[in-house]
Amino acid sequence: MRRGAREAERMRGLARPALRARWCRRLWALPARAAAASPSPPAGASPGSGALNPFDRRLKRKQKNWAALQAEPAKCDYLREEVGGRIADRVFDVARTFPLALDVGSGRGYIAQHLTKETVEKLIQVDIAENALKNAVESEIPTVRVVADEEFLPFKEDTFDLVVSSLSLHWVNDLPKAFKEIHQVLKPDGVFIGAMFGGDTLYELRCSLQLAELEREGGFSPHVSPFTAVADLGHLLARAGFNTLTVDTDEIQVNYPGLFEVMEDLQGMGESNCSWNRKPLLHRETMLAAAAIYQEMYGNGDGSVPATFQIYYMIGWKYHESQAKPAQRGSATVSFGDLAKIEGLLKRGKK
Amino acid sequence: MSGRGVWLRARARLRRFPAALAACGDQAAAYGRCVAAAAAGPAELRRDTCLEEFQALRECFARAVRRIKLGWEGLGGC
């Protein structure tokens, strides 16, 4: 136990990027680029080209390990538990029993606690942070936990009937590759149900920091990582080979006392910034200015400030002959012009 | 500048910030209004556009932090 505590202290020291003695190069980003950034590759890029590498995965792993070793890991889990519950609802909506399911980027396991043995018979949970898996929440489904990266799933093709992923794909470097891997490990007629943070997430935090840095320092660098847009998400899923796509969006607003509490909770969730181009230092004066701007521009009447989390839920199926296909051209039996007489046509059809 | 002691001390200092900011509500609101007006206006937001408001906020904040620190030390350390 003592060894574990010392390891935890060491990790905490490593996982605080703002205080490392690194190059303190300031990055002056152009407003248009930073504000409208989106991580999806341009349409012409070849699949799996590895052209994008915005995130430091080793740092993300350290941050998640640190977050999982906090004194009260459940304190900052409210968002993940809520989204995990909503994903479980969608799994129940699919009226099937899944013999083998995979949870990609499971963290401490927020989906499994809502699922039953009748829906999912066996579950494999995958995450890059081993401490999160060690402190996982108990669930009635027999579970196997594997430490692996979301982009390099160590499973054979056609293994799983169901793949779920809740709020972990936004830190993946090569999202098309991750979707292809998920598509590959799914059995034909298998389904992928995922949730990701969307474009409007934490826009208040992003704008406050941007304006504060502009006013205090004369330029700014991105502090909130860029999120995928909903149209890009649809294209990525289609390119990975998924059929019958459904993408819907949801907004969760959480109220906090102020900017510092927002940042503290984000750190507790393991959602600290790990982009390669992040600024290693955030000045106290800039933080103070950003807190004042956040309170004034976005504050609620009662003194609290809202933080918006926009979640995209996506459902995609792997092709199987039994799935409904679009009808052949020229096989129509009625014309659209007869829509007014639809009642008569239905009665004729029943006869 | 690396080392666990520095990190723990910086975090302890950071924990005083929300309380100190709550004590400077007026100055913070004035600064926020100035920046919001400048950002919404025709000209770009430039460095030190709202310098006076920020200096007032910073002085109030420094006083509040000192008060909190003395209060905590009076109670037996933080």
UniProtKB/TrEMBL annotation, chain A:
Pfam families named in the record: Methyltransf_11
Entry annotated with the keyword Transit peptide: yes
Region of interest called Disordered, as start-end residue ranges on this chain: 36-55
Keyword annotations of the record: Methyltransferase, Mitochondrion, Oxidoreductase, Transferase, Transit peptide
Entry superkingdom: Eukaryota
GO molecular function terms attached to this record: oxidoreductase activity; S-adenosylmethionine-dependent methyltransferase activity
Subcellular localization: Mitochondrion
Keyword Methyltransferase listed: yes
UniProt xrefs under InterPro entries: Malonyl-ACP_OMT, Methyltransf_11, SAM-dependent_MTases_sf
Any one Gene Ontology cellular component term annotated for this protein: mitochondrion
Gene Ontology biological-process entries: methylation; mitochondrial respiratory chain complex I assembly
Signal peptide range in chain numbering: none
Domain annotation Methyltransferase type: ranges: 102-193
Record PANTHER family: ARGININE-HYDROXYLASE NDUFAF5, MITOCHONDRIAL (PTHR13090:SF1)
Family: Belongs to the methyltransferase superfamily.
Protein name: Arginine-hydroxylase NDUFAF5, mitochondrial
Organism of this sequence: Cyanoderma ruficeps (rufous-capped babbler)
TrEMBL record, chain B:
Cellular component per GO, a single term: mitochondrion
A biological process from GO: mitochondrial respiratory chain complex I assembly
Protein name in the entry: NADH:ubiquinone oxidoreductase complex assembly factor 8
Organism name: Cyanoderma ruficeps (rufous-capped babbler)
Lineage per the UniProt record: Eukaryota, Metazoa, Chordata, Craniata, Vertebrata
